[in-house]
Amino acid sequence: MRDDAYDTPRGAGTVEAGTASNIAPLKSLKDFKVADGDPDVRGWKVISRDGREIGKVHDLLVDTSAMRVRYLDVDLDHDLLRSVPSLPGTSGPVLGRDHHVLIPIGYAQLDEDHDRIHMEHMDSHDVAVLPTYDHNAFNREYETGLRRRFDRDYTPATPSSTDRDFYTGELYDDSRFYGPRRKRRGLFGGGR
């Protein structure tokens, strides 16, 4: 299928591209799938810069208007969470249940030889103290706070900018993530 031949799947948002309401987990999008030839990284191990396994990819968060992955939903390893002391003024991670964080797609990279993902710019401690991803409370405010963790030079949108500007730049560049494994330009096709 040509990149320009994608149908708008049922369940895709109708709000302007890039708004938080257009971001959805792949598993909840009935008519979306990973494009043929691109690896489905769900379940793959995620390795930090210091070589530690920090968790596994639970899901992909998709911008349904742009048909692009924007985030990896990573379920953090419980041993990692036990090893990280709480930051002053925080209660620390809640152990005994899943603890998910979001990683912008351009901030991670595939390991072609071992089918795993590397976080080349973050140590395990840095990942463990990222804000918890609440699957039911994803909004632009959360997304902006998360972006500031990864891009210290980021300033929130001005009145003249568009929501599309939010995803401009290397942080959300999926070609940085897929690199030479990328077989197609578009990531998702209809699941017919």
Low-confidence stretches: 1-18
- Tell me, briefly, the overall form: globular
Class of secondary structure makeup: alpha+beta
Helix content: 10-25%
Oligomer: single chain
Strand content: 15-25%
Mean pLDDT: 77
N-to-C terminal Cα separation, in Å? 12 Å
Cα Rg: 17 Å
Number of strands: 9
- Biggest β-sheet strands, sense, barrel: 7 strands, mixed
Q: What is the string of SSEs from the N terminus onward? A: EEEEEHEEEHHHE
Number of helices: 4
Write up this protein.
Helix content is 14%, strand content 23%. It is globular. It has helices at 78-83, 124-128, 140-150, 174-178; strands spanning 23-25, 32-34, 45-48, 53-63, 68-76, 100-104, 109-111, 116-119, 188-190. The protein has 192 residues and is of the alpha+beta class. A hairpin with a 4-residue loop joins β3 and β4 (53-63). The strands form two sheets. Strands 1, 3, 4, 5, 6, 7 and 8 form a seven-stranded mixed sheet that branches. It has a two-stranded antiparallel ribbon with strand order 2-9. The model is unreliable at 1-18 (pLDDT under 50).
Sequence-ordered SSE layout with sheet pairings:
Layout lengths: L22 E3 L6 E3 L10 E4 L4 E11 L4 E9 L1 H6 L16 E5 L4 E3 L4 E4 L4 H5 L11 H11 L23 H5 L9 E3 L2
Parallel strand pairs: 3-8
Antiparallel strand pairs: 1-4, 2-9, 3-4, 4-5, 5-6, 7-8
